[in-house]
């Protein structure tokens, strides 16, 4: 199959306005898949506890951080998200010389959530993910069916000070630190000769397979990628277009600019078709540790027809019920073996409302234009409110415990008026 997945972006000073990190991702998934936005509080765990990920059970840690996640509703992990320490992670599907058709293990999306739950810095998340990768491996179907759609993973990880690009092939991996400027990833390996961390056997394994002679400068992308360039070019088109969009906004990258990038259809970043953008995220993280990060999520397909709604980590946050899908527990077809024998209805409240409005926008041009304008106006109002918190902090945290849910309700009210 041709590479079909996502784009993840990060911008750091001096490419951003002010001393802020701006992180963004489009999650491109099967067009009929529901993506939910969920919150899990920080939790202490007993020494003997286990955690059941999508396919396998692993050892739990003593403490997990509070996280907000955007995830396909059928699995445990997440496509993207953030934690209370303002670490943000997004992953991408990558394919190379090493087969991705392994046994069920940890999905890349499981590793996103585990990294957020267990690390309080970007570099710490690199360490968490790579340790889990070596211990448990990566593998299993990444779609809710029997297609056997499998891949390796790359990750873009940021915190208040820096970003890390982590790329994997089986259990082998390399990582690159990004201290300034901007970076984007798509569905191809991007780390070349600048390697700041790596699996101790990454080079020797490549040499043993005949991919590298052991003498020329080691270039991870060249060594581990497909030998046929057509596959790489197919994956690289969106990467190049995404990089151009970052360059166009260089020095002035804001939340709004990142949202515009994620909405761009001409570049292919905002994907349409059998694989489409089913959820989007933009985070703004001030370097000043006294200021909150603001995390915007759509929770609905196609960011051009969606509202980015804000979330801020404060105490006493409540579950995000309007964007939480129905739970089927042990009866879920994903959990029963053989898996994927049926597909239950996973639509959450916002998804159902948005589905109707998206159809109106598609079929009724004038009416759709008015609805879209109302959605953008709501989004703009929310961003103006958030700018106060990003600049001056949070004086009344209790007022923000329902911030995201209230924003969802206001979005639904816009639909109703339309």
What does this structure look like?
The protein has 418 residues and is α+β, with helices and mostly antiparallel strands. The chain has one domain (7-417): Penicillin V Acylase, Chain A. The chain contains 9 helices and 18 strands. The protein has helices spanning 108-118, 122-136, 202-208, 220-224, 229-248, 255-262, 349-363, 365-392, 403-417, and strands at 7-11, 20-30, 35-40, 43-44, 50-52, 57-59, 63-64, 67-72, 80-83, 88-94, 152-158, 163-169, 172-178, 182-185, 197-198, 275-286, 294-297, 309-311. The chain has an 8-stranded antiparallel β-sheet, covered by helices on one side. The protein has a 6-stranded antiparallel β-sheet with strand order 14-1-2-16-17-18. The chain is globular and about 65 Å long. It starts with 6 loop residues before the first strand and ends with a helix.
Quick synopsis:
This protein has helices at 108-118, 122-136, 202-208, 220-224, 229-248, 255-262, 349-363, 365-392, 403-417; strands at residues 7-11, 20-30, 35-40, 43-44, 50-52, 57-59, 63-64, 67-72, 80-83, 88-94, 152-158, 163-169, 172-178, 182-185, 197-198, 275-286, 294-297, 309-311. The protein is an alpha+beta fold and 418 residues long. It comes from Nibea albiflora.
């Amino acid at each position: 199959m041709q590479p079909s997945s996502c784009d993840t972006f990060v911008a750091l000073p001096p490419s951003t306005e002010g001393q802020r990190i701006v992180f963004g991702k489009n999650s491109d998934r099967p067009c009929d898949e529901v993506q939910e936005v969920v919150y899990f509080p920080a939790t202490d765990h007993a020494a003997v506890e286990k955690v059941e990920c999508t396919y396998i059970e692993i050892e739990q840690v003593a403490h997990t951080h509070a996280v907000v996640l955007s995830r396909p509703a059928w699995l445990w992990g997440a496509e993207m998200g953030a934690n209370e320490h303002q670490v943000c992670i997004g992953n991408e599907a990558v394919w190379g010389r090493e087969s991705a058709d392994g046994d069920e293990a940890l999905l890349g999306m499981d590793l996103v959530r585990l990294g957020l739950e267990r690390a309080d810095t970007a570099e710490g998340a690199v360490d968490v993910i790579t340790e889990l990768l070596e211990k448990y491996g990566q593998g299993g179907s990444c779609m809710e069916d029997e297609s056997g759609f499998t891949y390796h993973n790359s990750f873009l990880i940021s915190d208040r000070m820096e970003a890390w690009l982590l790329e994997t092939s089986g259990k082998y991996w390399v990582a690159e630190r990004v201290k300034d400027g901007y970076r984007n990833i798509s569905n191809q390996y991007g780390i070349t000769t600048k390697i700041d961390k790596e699996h101790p056997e990454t080079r020797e394994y490549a040499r043993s397979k005949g991919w590298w002679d052991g003498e020329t400068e080691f270039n991870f992308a060249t060594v581990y990628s497909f030998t046929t360039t057509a596959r790489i070019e197919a994956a690289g088109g969106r990467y190049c277009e995404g990089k151009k969009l970052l360059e166009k906004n260089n020095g002035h990258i804001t939340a709004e600019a990142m949202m515009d990038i994620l909405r761009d259809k001409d570049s292919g970043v905002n994907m349409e078709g059998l694989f489409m953008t089913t959820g989007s995220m933009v985070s703004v993280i001030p370097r000043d540790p006294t200021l909150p990060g603001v995390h915007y999520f759509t929770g609905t397909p196609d960011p051009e027809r969606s509202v980015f709604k804000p979330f801020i980590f404060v105490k006493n946050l409540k579950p995000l019920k309007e964007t939480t899908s129905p739970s089927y527990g042990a009866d879920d077809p994903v959990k029963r073996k053989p898996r994927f024998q049926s597909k239950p209805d996973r639509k959450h409240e916002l998804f159902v409302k948005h589905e109707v409005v998206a159809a109106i926008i598609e079929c009724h041009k004038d009416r759709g234009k008015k609805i879209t304008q109302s959605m953008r106006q709501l989004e703009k109002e929310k961003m103006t409110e958030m700018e106060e918190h990003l600049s001056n902090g949070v004086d009344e945290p209790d007022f923000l415990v329902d911030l995201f849910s209230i924003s969802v309700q206001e979005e639904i009210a816009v639909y109703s008026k339309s």
